[in-house]
Specification:
Length: 131
């Protein structure tokens, strides 16, 4: 099971070719890719044109959906954020700690293109997709 971060999806929908978007393009329809509420929001909020929004929404809603937030994940995320801070790491975006924590908790590999996840790999055992 793989969760694709919005950093990859946004590049994908914008037609930007990276190792991660190439991996995603080849894996769609073959790998078990899930989407969660936080990532769905991050992706869809950026569309300017209604037509593009609807196309992306329809594509993303075909993927298996998992709710990512709630009391348990909020508490685990706060603990992981504090753990990273104790290791001298300040993550720029709290939502990235929540996404990373979700993946760690559910043992889901993360495909990303965002340096905020690197300390989570090192200090929290976040599993990532190697591209």
């Amino acid at each position: 099971m793989i969760l694709v971060d919005s950093s990859v999806w946004i590049d994908y929908f914008n037609g930007r070719r990276t190792a991660q978007t190439d991996w995603l393009d080849s894996a769609l329809g073959k790998a078990y890719i899930v989407i969660g509420d936080l990532i769905l929001t991050e992706i869809l909020q950026g569309f300017q044109r209604d037509r593009d929004f609807k196309i992306a929404r329809d594509l993303l809603l075909r993927l298996p959906f998992m709710p990512m937030v709630g009391k348990e994940m909020a508490l685990e995320s706060a603990m992981n954020y504090r753990r990273l801070r104790k290791n001298g790491v300040t993550v720029r975006k709290t939502i990235d700690v929540m996404i990373g924590t979700f993946c760690i908790h559910h043992r889901i590999a993360l495909l990303h293109d965002d340096r905020d996840f690197d300390p989570m790999v090192k200090h929290l055992s976040l599993e990532i997709v190697d591209v």
